[in-house]
Amino acid sequence: MDKDRVKGSADQAMGAIKEAAGELTGDAKLKAEGKAGKLKGKVENAVGGAKDAVRHATGKLDRALDIDAVASAGSALRDAVRTRPVGTLAVAAGIGALVGALIMRV
């Protein structure tokens, strides 16, 4: 959880307390400060939520684009083509035939 979300929640709570105190005492200035504090807290909370969402999305992207895994797969494919070219060609032809058959069905 982002620190802005924590601060936003605290500001919202403090704003609600000030607003209630202003309501009870009839102090319009304190009530207005409370409303402003609640609004500030909501904005901070939204900013923190956006930061969390970006952090989450970039984490997923990092895992999806694991460069080491891609390099390892590419290296394994290159080795397979070099060591077993006929077998690799047969697999590629089989995949091509399967994709062609699927396309013809649609």
Q: How would you describe the overall organization of this protein?
A:
- This protein is an all-alpha fold and 106 residues long.
- It has one domain.
- It has four helices and no strands.
- The longest helix has 37 residues, at 28-64.
- The protein starts with a helix and ends with a helix.
- The model has no long low-confidence stretch (mean pLDDT 86).
Q: Distance between termini?
A: 47 Å
Give the low-confidence spans: none
* Helix vs. strand class: mainly alpha
Quote the average pLDDT: 86
The oligomeric state of the chains shown is single chain
Largest sheet: none
Write the H/E string, N to C: HHHH
Put simply, the count of helices is 4
Taken together, the total number of domains comes to: 1
DSSP summary, beta strand count: 0
Q: Could you say which overall geometry the principal axes of the C-alpha atoms support?
A: rod-shaped
Q: Please estimate the helix content.
A: over 70%
Q: What Rg do the Cα atoms give? A: 29 Å
Binned strand content: under 5%
Short summary of the structure?
92% of the residues lie in helices and 0% in strands. It is mainly alpha-helical.
